UniProtKB/TrEMBL annotation:
This is N5-carboxyaminoimidazole ribonucleotide synthase. ATP binds at residues 100, 140, 145-151, 175-178, 183, 206, 259-260. It catalyses: 5-amino-1-(5-phospho-beta-D-ribosyl)imidazole + hydrogencarbonate + ATP = 5-carboxyamino-1-(5-phospho-D-ribosyl)imidazole + ADP + phosphate + 2 H(+). It comes from Albidovulum salinarum. Homodimer. PROSITE patterns: ATP_GRASP. SUPFAM superfamilies: Glutathione synthetase ATP-binding domain-like (SSF56059), PreATP-grasp domain (SSF52440), Rudiment single hybrid motif (SSF51246). One of its GO terms (molecular function) is 5-(carboxyamino)imidazole ribonucleotide synthase activity.
């Protein structure tokens, strides 16, 4: 079979590689750090920085298509690759999701609801933004944040100075704090021919800014479920997107508010591995390889639990549980806050 190139060798790249292998493809991982989780299951690995144009060119020539498992890839790397092979999802989707300010204005332009926001580059901007948006609010770096990193909460305007200092001069965005009842996400896919399919929305609980559990079915009315899926489809179609995307939503009395989009397979979609015939990883490979989308209808209720840091020590006990599927990422060191694996606890419908 032909080779699929994946930028990023973390657990998402690992699970994409496994799904690709099941469909008869090989994967070539490009990852700056040595011995990444995906290296164990990939056909080839290039260890080089995203700035190494010669390594990028050689990588692009060795693969039929390129995808990514990580949204913070410099767009200059995509330029070097694009000359040699197609990249899915496209660079517009990547660049929008890399910058919270651009992301929010894109979503607003589509007619979707976001938190109130304002750009913050300095103390004067922040004073104005706090005046306009008020507190509680959250100051976030525009770029490079994940797992709640690069975020400071403002309980009152008095917190502004310390929050700005924590941004370390990086361009930032102030977001009004959304009074949500709970959080959900939609994992949706669009094929090369423009077919769109969405998995059932999952309900997400974050602890300390990191996803802890995803539960399906989520607590949503039929109308909310329909809204969630339609708004995800609107985003995918607007971007002429190819592949799987994660759309994070806040559920509020006023309706669904989009928090952020991730142009890749998503942690909150891991439940699909044991809840659907075709999971998000296979769906992504199908989409980018030009296949029809698979059947992602949910055959079971699932609670996905992330195993973070020392949680991994619970594996011997978890291994005795019934109806529990274990997914480990092969990471040697269990550092605090590090995603080591996840489990899917399954109840057939
Ligand atoms: P991820 O790992 O999902 O990429 P991230 O670092 O990009 O996370 P966000 O998704 O922006 O961070 O925020 C993490 C969590 O913080 C959200 O899931 C939500 O619980 C809370 N949060 C973020 N922004 C807001 C907001 N404007 N109002 C209320 N809660 C928020
Ligand atoms: Mg994010
Ligand atoms: Mg998020």
């Amino acid at each position: 079979g032909s080779v699929i190139g994946i930028l990023g060798g973390g657990q998402l790249g690992r699970m994409l590689s496994v799904a690709a292998a099941r469909l008869g493809y090989r994967t070539h991982i490009y990852e700056p750090m040595a011995n990444p989780p995906a290296a164990d299951v990939a056909h080839a690995v290039t260890t080089a920085p995203y700035e190494d144009l010669a390594a990028l060119e050689a990588f692009a020539k060795s693969v039929a298509i390129v995808t990514y498992e990580f949204e913070n890839i410099p767009t200059s790397a995509l330029d070097a690759l694009e000359a040699h092979c197609p990249i899915h999802p496209n660079r517009r989707a990547l660049s929008i999701s890399q910058d919270r300010l651009i992301e929010k204005s894109f979503l607003r332009d589509l007619g979707l609801m976001t938190a109130p926001y304002a750009a913050v580059d300095d103390a004067a901007d922040l004073a104005e933004a706090v005046e306009e948006i008020g507190t509680p609010s959250i100051l976030k770096t525009r770029r490079l944040g994940y797992d709640g990193k690069g975020q400071e909460r403002l309980k009152s305007p008095d917190d502004a100075e310390a929050a700005l200092a924590a941004m370390k001069d990086a361009p930032a965005i102030l977001e009004g704090f959304v009074e949500f009842s709970h959080e959900v996400s939609v994992i949706a896919a669009r094929s090369l021919t423009g077919e769109v399919a969405a998995f059932d929305p999952g309900e997400n609980v974050h602890v300390g800014g990191i996803l802890s559990t995803t539960t399906v079915p989520a607590r949503l009315t039929e109308a909310q479920r329909t809204d969630a899926v339609l708004l995800a489809a609107k985003i995918l179609n607007a971007l002429k997107y190819v592949g799987v995307m994660g759309v994070e939503l806040f559920v509020t009395k006023k309706g669904l508010i989009v928090n952020e989009i991730a142009p890749r397979v998503h942690n909150s979609g891991h439940w699909t591995q044991n809840g659907c015939a075709v999971d998000q990883f296979e769906q992504h490979i199908r989409a980018i390889a030009g296949w029809p989308l698979g059947d992602g209808s949910r055959h079971s209720d699932v609670v996905m639990e992330n195993l973070i840091g020392d949680d991994i020590a619970r594996i011997p006990a978890i291994a005795r549980e019934k109806h529990t599927a274990i997914h480990l990422y092969g990471k040697a060191e269990a550092r605090a806050g590090r995603k080591m694996g996840h489990v899917n606890r399954v109840t057939p419908r």
